[in-house]
From TrEMBL, chain A:
InterPro entries: BCAA_transport (IPR051010), Leu-bd (IPR028081), Peripla_BP_I (IPR028082). PANTHER family: LEUCINE-SPECIFIC-BINDING PROTEIN, PERIPLASMIC BINDING PROTEIN OF ABC TRANSPORTER FOR NATURAL AMINO ACIDS. SUPFAM superfamilies: Periplasmic binding protein-like I. Belongs to the leucine-binding protein family. GO terms for biological process: amino acid transport. This is ABC transporter substrate-binding protein. Coiled coil: none annotated. It comes from Pseudooceanicola pacificus. Residues 22-352 form the Leucine-binding protein domain. The lineage of its organism: Bacteria, Pseudomonadati, Pseudomonadota, Alphaproteobacteria, Rhodobacterales.
From TrEMBL, chain B:
It comes from Pseudooceanicola pacificus. Keywords: Amino-acid transport, Cell membrane, Membrane, Transmembrane, Transmembrane helix, Transport. GO terms for cellular component: plasma membrane. Coiled coil: none annotated. InterPro entries: ABC_transp_permease, BCAA_transport_permease. It is a multi-pass membrane protein. This is Branched-chain amino acid ABC transporter permease. Its main location: membrane. The keyword Aminoacyl-tRNA synthetase does not apply. Belongs to the binding-protein-dependent transport system permease family. LivHM subfamily.
Length: 377, 306
């Protein structure tokens, strides 16, 4: 009896051996509702890299989280339990990431973040299986503060929505801004009318305005700001100046400085090839979300070539090497598995009919993040 | 805090109030005449904004865009009324809420299917862009002044329509006793379609007007819808006059609360916690207002029935 079982096991193992080990990736992102543009770019960037690699040992399952934490958790559970994925990725929003990531990495999966990178997961909540390929959430805001300081601004009026990422944003800006604050305002999340805040800016006497208003909030703010006749220069993180939404803001955004870890004019062969391939494949210019999705997929492919995804230590080490050709040029990981990278200052320009960004300087060089020391792995 | 800043904020409050009125007027009319809770009203607002953005992009004319917004939203309203809403009048409110919620999802995904996932561009016409100087040295955007004007003109027009025309008589009669006016020979189902299309057209107009200074995107109607419900509850369900007063109250409370509450708390605590507490209280302020008014007048300011 025992012999029979052993023989059977041997046969099964022999049958299984020639089939190449397949890596299953679950991509959870926002594909419907108001935030869909971000998720669609993430997915398209990620899938572009997978298609270009042309390999059949990586299977990607894509699901829509509707920008709802509860839906994201359900999808993650389904992907982990019935689809048996090895790696999760794709979440755009920090509140959704906080709902999904700790439990997923707790169950031994790898999570590669294409965007959301809240402070909690960089500091005490860091995990060997969690990698942020985008940035740490504070980075672009810190860079905006550093830029405002180096541009010689003395008093800043700063505003952000009243939710955790908004508070982190203003904290990040203040960390590197050496001038004074002429005002600090928390707006409502999803607010569409900024007339009241613009009147306060007018009365404040600030010489620069920093704002973090992602998505539609930023479109509303910039259009209304331009119409108010105020001339105080505006600085912000890349989120409100993304390729997807710049066309909706139009000329109101021209000349605005914004900070980003990626730009379509970063002068590397990998980036030029990516911008060209993305534009050809999807008939639109890529956004930062698409670039981050693309980098994430390439990082994953590089690690799959080096190690078995079921060997946590080896696969984690392979990811840490970051041995892929990033569209951002130089890219490496800090000990808490968040990027070390340059953060650029871009200016909104018009190229033909299209509004886009061009790099005008570097705000921070080789920036890691504030939370490296708090991470004990 | 200067007098100019306060005056400017009062104008801002008025402007957001009259735009809310355009939404709330249709909502309250539909509820008053047909007894229907229409959650899809925000979708009609979105339809108006998208129609305006599409026509403005194609023709370059803002006035044509406004006309298109009115027409598209009214048409969408009429179609929705005949195809879906008509079956819901004798159902209870839960069925109405479920069906109109389904309409929200259909409108949102349908719009995304047609226009894509990225926000559209709709800008202020050149002849209304930039600020104008008001007496007292207040610099105020011309477009926002125009919004106040349009909103008040629509309010006046609605009042004339309801109080001076045959359609208005029928609408008022329909609010009071729909069986009786049906018995008197009024084609009640056509009246319902007209009222629904009128309400939808107003929502579409508001969407287009506001879309020019905000973001034209899928789901833009839902936040406004919630405020519009607060407005009609404050004003008294079914009352146009209540909708106007309620909208102005909500607009002013929302705008002024967001500015003055943080300033008020700065008198007691340090600036950063004052900002946090003030911002938190400001976002509650309209609901506190609603609760206070309901305690004082349980049917709303001008509400006739319980």
């Amino acid at each position: 009896m025992r012999f029979k079982a052993m023989a059977l096991a041997t046969v099964v193992a022999a049958l299984a051996a020639p089939v190449q080990a397949e890596v299953k990736v679950g991509l959870i992102t926002t594909l419907s509702g108001g935030g869909a543009g971000l998720g669609i770019d993430t997915r398209d960037g990620f899938m572009l890299a997978i298609e270009q690699a042309g390999r059949d040992d990586v299977e990607v399952i894509v699901e829509d989280d509707q920008q709802k934490p509860d839906v994201a958790v359900q999808i993650a559970d389904k992907m982990i339990q019935s689809d048996k994925v090895d790696v999760l990725t794709g979440i755009v929003w920090s509140n959704l990431a906080m709902a999904v990531v700790p439990s997923a990495v707790g169950q031994g999966l790898f999570y590669l973040s294409t965007n959301a990178a809240p402070a909690q997961l960089a500091g005490p909540g860091c995990n060997p299986n969690y990698f942020s390929v985008s940035y740490q959430n504070d980075n672009l805001h810190e860079a905006a503060g550093a830029y405002a300081t180096s541009a010689g601004y003395k008093t800043a009026f700063i505003l952000a929505p009243n939710y955790p990422a908004g508070k982190d944003s203003l904290t990040g800006f203040k960390r590197f801004f050496e001038g004074d604050l002429a005002g600090e305002v928390y707006t409502q999340l999803g607010q569409t009318d900024y007339a009241a805040e613009i009147a306060q800016i007018r009365a404040s006497g600030a010489d620069t305005v920093f704002f973090f208003l992602p998505g539609g909030m930023g479109i509303s703010f910039l259009k209304q700001y331009a119409d108010s006749g105020l001339e105080i220069p505006v600085v912000g993180p890349a989120f409100s100046f993304d390729q997807g939404i710049l066309q909706a803001i139009g000329a109101a955004a021209l000349g605005v400085k914004n900070t980003s870890s990626w730009s379509k004019d970063i002068d590397t062969p990998a980036n030029a090839a990516f911008v060209e391939a993305f534009s050809a494949r999807y008939d639109r210019l890529p956004s930062i979300y698409a670039a981050q999705g693309y980098d994430t997929a390439n990082l994953l492919l590089s690690a799959i070539d080096k190690a078995d995804v079921n060997d946590d230590a080896a696969f984690g080490a392979a990811l840490m090497e970051a041995d892929f050709d990033s569209v951002r040029g130089k890219f490496s990981f800090a000990p808490n598995r968040h990027p070390i990278q340059d953060i650029y200052v871009r200016e909104v320009v018009q190229e033909g009919d299209v509004f886009t960004n061009k790099i005008v300087g570097t705000a921070m060089t080789d920036r890691a993040n504030e939370y490296v020391d708090q991470c004990k792995m | 805090m200067s007098a100019i800043l306060i005056a400017e904020q009062v104008l801002n409050g008025l402007q957001s109030g009259v735009m809310l009125f355009l939404m709330a007027a249709g909502l309250t009319l539909i509820f008053g005449v047909m007894g229907l809770i229409n959650l899809a009203h925000g979708s009609l607002y979105m339809v108006g904004a998208f129609a305006a953005a599409a026509v403005a992009a194609a023709t370059g004319s803002f006035l044509l865009a406004l006309a298109a917004a009115l027409a598209a939203a009214a048409l969408a309203g009429a179609v929705v009324e005949t195809v879906v809403i008509r079956r819901l009048y004798d159902k209870d409110h839960l069925d109405q809420v479920l069906a109109t919620f389904a309409l929200i999802l259909i409108f949102s995904e349908g719009t995304r299917w047609i226009f894509g996932s990225f926000p559209l561009f709709l800008d202020i016409p050149p002849w209304l862009s930039g600020p104008v100087e008001l007496p007292g040295g207040i610099l105020y955007p011309a477009y926002r002044l125009a919004l106040i004007g349009v909103g008040l003109a629509v309010a006046l027009g609605l009042w004339l329509l309801i109080s001076r025309t045959r359609l208005g008589v029928r609408i008022r009669a329909g609010e009071n006793d729909r069986e009786m006016i049906a018995a008197l020979g009024v084609d009640i189902s056509r009246l319902y379609t007209v009222v629904f299309a009128l309400g939808a057209g107003l929502a579409g107009l508001a969407g287009a007007l506001v879309g020019a200074i905000q973001s034209v995107q899928v789901g833009m109607g839902e936040p406004v819808l919630i405020l519009a419900f607060v407005v009609i509850v404050i004003g008294g369900i079914g009352s146009i006059r209540g909708a106007l007063v309620g909208a102005l109250l909500v607009g002013l409370t929302d705008t002024l609360g967001g500015i003055f509450l943080p300033e008020l708390f700065k008198l007691f605590t340090d600036p950063s916690s004052a900002t946090t507490i003030g911002a938190a209280l400001a976002s509650m302020s309209i609901y506190v207002l609603m609760a206070a008014i309901l305690v004082w007048k349980p049917t709303g300011l001008y509400g006739a029935r319980a």
